[in-house]
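Entry 14: structure prediction run for Methyltransferase type 11 domain-containing protein. Input pasted below.
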Amino acid sequence: MIKIKSPVIKSQEQIWTSEWSQRSTASEIKMWDFYLERPWILKYVPRYGIVLEAGCGLGRYVFYLAALGIDIIGIDFVSEALHKIQEYMKKNKVYSPFCQGDVRKLCFKDNSLSGYISLGVIEHFEEGPDLAMQEAYRVLRPGGIAIITTPSVSFSQIYLQSKLKVKKSIKYLIKKIIRYPIYKPYFFQYWYLPKTLKKYLEKSGFKIVLSQGADLMYSFYELGYQPARKSWFTELLFKLENTPMASIGAQAISISYKPAQQMYCFLCGHFNVHIKELTASIPLCQDCQKKPLAKHYIKANRLKFQSSMLIHPEFNNDQETCDYCGKEYAVSKILEYYGFSKNVCSICLKNSEINLNLSNTYIQPVWRLRT
Ligand SMILES: [Zn+2]
Ligand SMILES: [Zn+2]
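Run finished. Output tokens:
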């Protein structure tokens, strides 16, 4: 006899409560390059003003970016996530601000934040991403940067979803024949092509800096591939990641800003950028356009990791010598060496010039599975 399980209607809150209850903040931080989106975040996250991670889950990027000296707040609507974060902070004697809330109705004033980060959040609203984007636009100050990513319609998704469609159609047919009750399956998420995500952002008033696809590794992982050390295929995938081929990967990534006649400068944080004088891809004042770091921001080029990928590296808990100040420092047990190919102590890392330089020139992916 054919046994058909009846579908269970689940709310987003139930889905995420069960998701986060199986994981820990520390294990999430350790897999910071699981979606290969770190170069975008590090290159464009504002070093001045307050940055919000809207839909922060277990706080992976909040703790990581706070270590870079970024003034960041995490918000999530699931109590289980906030509970796990509290546990992590108590155990590791670290502190970052978090609050509970809905990203479609934020508790921040208009024009109050310098940055808005949203990684795999806005695709979970059945009514579409407009409300969340309008809120992002409202709370960002003029020139404020939005870093928004969603899953993309990648080649692996096209394959997996068509397979699922066939399976569902057969199930539907069988249920119809045996007159089994048919329920509407619960909604989980949408997949957006980079150009679709870009359209939504433009509709909300954002000016696009970069919009592209990324993460071939995850697409192959979805199809069953396990990245391994010293594998030619893993190396090939990583090499392709730094080419336009990555556009067919698992993530749609966007960098944009809130345009206005007068805006805050990305490099000095002053309210001194006039849109008529702006020649860079993001808001930079006239003085900052002459700084050496400005060369990374004049044109918005496709982003790359700068050093070869480390697959499942062992944790290094030793002392290292900082390449910037020459002092010995203890490597962080969870944040490790921060994913750069240079040694940097936690004090030097909080210098925005140093961390911007590292983020543009020495970024190295560290690929680990979820544990
Ligand atoms: Zn400036
Ligand atoms: Zn140092």
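Notes: The chain has two domains: 12-215+250-304, 307-365. Will compare against the previous run tomorrow.
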